[in-house]
Design goal:
- This protein has 666 residues and is α/β, with parallel strands linked by helices.
- It contains 15 helices and 33 strands.
- Strands 2-1-3-6-5-4 form a six-stranded mixed beta sheet, with helices on both faces.
- A hairpin with a 2-residue loop joins strand 29 and strand 30.
- Helix 5 crosses helix 6.
- The longest helix has 19 residues.
């Protein structure tokens, strides 16, 4: 366990500590790994002396890692690099290069950053752990930039900290792991994970500071290459799938265990916010209304004003009105000083007018009580009141956008929307609108319906998409398409090429060409048995160290759509920051309108769910063959039918069955 100190350098945060978001963000990110313990945090002004004093104190205390945030730019008050550089005995240019390259992949403005990193030794006699080094790294002041820079270094930090702490380069846990045969970054990652004794549960961490733990039983997964070798003669290849059948439940557990949450970014509050998931609670910064106001058109009066004739004032008074006067007021306007009630137009009548036919005097026909037709200050929303919560989704309906506008929020923190790449595979496939539909294969061309369907659904759900087109059945083409997808998107969805045929290259490409891990290759379900889920390591200088997800779905249209809703969409919902209970799609009980035979595997039967006076009923969309695309038309639900067993080979009309909702109930 490494001790960590974090310093926020900011004039603004020094005046208002609640405005800083980097300290809690970085603290939670580090501690969620089980390797680091944040021992101290502080906020100082952009003053070199204050920065140096704070960091020097931590060096003398023997803190292993000191992180600073803020003050690394070109501004006149950006003094952190100079203050920190004066303390460093052993610069770490590799850290600086890695951070800059990672940031430059995101924005050219990273060229304006001036990070510093290196090891500082304690010089104070009698200091704790005198002579051992403290690794110092300067991070940007923005939460997004600080997190991205730190994630770039996470896999090598433990090794660096052991060395800075005095360990021999050949005796660190990381180096020992590498010498045992785990080479490169993968070995460092493995050694890093092994440094938290007894810490074996899986962590998924994001800037929302949430942790996702999974301790449930999982089906065994491969630790070595299991895919067929495409270079081996066809007759010598595997004839049976080496991947065990996993249940839908275990498949989902593996997906959630390996799905990261996207970074947090500041997003403008407008219609483009639709689909985003808030990463922080939203609280009102003011009382609404901010002073007593009226909810009617009429006149502001004193509750002591009896019925009678009163002079009408139309300009908002800066001083209390004299007796015998009332103020004409419109809905939402503040009350003048001294007025404590409002009377409706309907309870008055005009007595006299001026030359412009404007009222000079009105008669009050009634006397109103104090507070009548008045909204008290803060009666709608109080200052500091929470109006939206972390995990709330900004929907198309507009209620969330309206709420944000109501409390004056121009920007909010939300999880970045995942980018999804979609690829169809197969020599037999052609685009619907291709004018030349000739095909070199010996069988008829098949129009690709999977990719247009999935892209349409994803766009409807407000995800950014990348159309990878149709890939031929060659390893070079498959590798090129997957490489582009994993470099430019968070999740890659492929259809076809997942079985044991000669041209089924997805699993071999993932394992053998991209260095990925196949977490499951078959699922005990109908349709969708060959569904495959894998992760591919990120590019060495990617902005985050999160793996890229690959869902290799079956090529039959019904199978592709069913497995998308059951597996891909829940992963997307976790990735975009939704609450754990909202990852999977809703399930509701429905009544069957016909009897349905059961299969030896659990089956997901396409149905139309419709409301009736007695509740929800499900109407089958007909033949359920996985290649029968028309069974998808009109379907808004998937019946979860159990596997058949002795004595039960069908579900009968009127039986109640759970149904996964994939569309609106009309």
């Amino acid at each position: 366990m490494f001790d960590v100190a974090i310093l926020c350098v900011s004039d603004t945060a020094f005046s208002d500590p609640s405005s800083d978001r980097v300290l809690p963000l970085i603290s939670d990110l580090l501690e969620s790994t089980g390797i680091y313990k944040v021992k101290s945090t502080a906020i100082v002004r952009d003053e070199p002396k204050e920065i140096t004093q704070a960091v020097s104190g931590w060096i003398d205390q023997g803190i292993a890692l000191c992180l600073t945030s803020g003050g690394t730019g070109f501004g006149t008050r950006d003094n952190t690099p100079e203050a920190v550089a004066s303390l460093i005995d052993k610069p770490a240019p590799g850290f600086v290069t890695a951070m800059l390259l990672g940031s430059l992949n995101i924005t050219p403005l990273a060229a304006l950053s001036r990070p510093v990193a290196g090891v500082a030794l304690s010089r104070q006699p009698g200091a704790k752990q005198e002579g051992k080094g403290t690794l110092i790294v300067t991070l940007p002041g923005s939460p997004k930039g600080a997190k991205e820079n730190l994630e770039t270094l996470l896999k090598v930090l433990p090794h660096a900290l052991e060395l800075a702490g005095g360990a021999s380069s050949r005796k660190t846990q990381v180096h020992q792991q590498i010498e045992k045969g785990q080479d490169g970054m993968k070995g460092i990652e493995t050694a890093t994970k092994n440094q938290a004794p007894g810490h074996s549960c899986s962590h998924s961490h994001s800037q929302s500071h949430s942790h996702s733990h999974s301790h449930s039983h999982h089906a065994p997964r491969s630790r070595t290459l299991m895919s067929q070798d495409p270079s081996v003669a066809i007759a010598s290849r595997q004839r049976q799938s080496p991947w065990p059948l996993v249940s839908v439940k275990d498949a989902l557990s593996l997906i959630f265990e390996n799905t990261p949450v996207t970074q947090i970014e500041s997003v403008t509050v407008d219609e483009s916010l639709t689909g985003y998931v808030l990463s922080d609670d939203v609280k009102s910064s003011k009382n609404i209304p901010n002073s007593p106001s009226t909810n009617i058109d009429g006149y502001a009066v004193r509750s002591s004003d009896a019925p009678g004739v009163y002079k009408v004032v139309t300009t908002f008074p800066t001083e209390p009105l004299p007796a015998g006067s009332v103020y004409r007021i419109a809905t939402g306007a503040p009350l003048p000083a001294g007025m404590d009630a409002c009377i409706m137009v309907e309870d008055t009548e005009v007595v006299s007018r001026d030359d412009q036919d404007e009222e000079l005097e009105v008669r009050l026909l009634a006397q109103v009580d104090a507070g009548e037709n008045v909204r008290k200050e803060g009666s709608d929303v109080r200052e500091g009141e929470k109006v939206l919560e972390a995990g709330d989704v900004i929907t198309q309906v507009g209620g969330e956008l309206g709420t944000l506008a109501f409390v004056g929020k121009q920007h909010v923190l939300a999880h970045r929307r995942p980018v999804v790449a979609v690829l169809s595979t197969g020599n037999e496939l052609v685009n619907l609108h291709d004018k030349n539909k000739s095909n070199t294969a010996s069988f008829s061309s098949i129009v690709d319906s999977n990719r247009p369907t999935l892209l349409s659904i994803l766009k409807h759900l407000h995800y950014e998409t990348l159309d990878l087109g149709i890939c031929s059945d060659s390893m070079d083409a498959t590798k090129a398409a997957l490489k582009r997808g994993t470099e430019e998107a968070d999740i890659v969805i492929t259809t076809g090429g997942t079985s044991m045929g000669v041209s089924d290259l997805l699993k071999p490409c993932i394992e053998r060409e991209l260095g990925g891990s196949v977490h499951f290759g078959r699922v005990a379900m109908k349709p969708g048995k060959p569904t495959t889920f894998a992760t591919v390591p990120p590019h060495p200088f990617a902005p985050t160290r999160n793996p890229k997800l690959v869902f290799a779905l079956p090529g039959n249209p019904a199978s592709a759509l069913v497995t998308f809703y059951l597996f891909v969409l829940p992963a997307l919902r976790k990735m975009e920051g939704r609450r754990q209970g909202e990852w999977e799609l809703a399930r509701v009980p429905v009544s069957l309108t016909t009897s349905i035979p059961l299969d030896s595997r659990p089956e997901y039967h396409r149905v139309l769910v419709r409301p009736t006076a007695k509740g929800l009923e499900a109407v089958s969309t007909g033949g359920q063959r996985s290649s029968r695309t028309v069974s998808l038309a009109g379907a808004n639900g998937l019946l979860e039918l159990p596997a058949s067993k002795e004595g039960e080979d069908s579900k009968q009309k009127g039986d109640i069955v759970q149904c996964v909702l994939i569309g609106d109930i009309m």
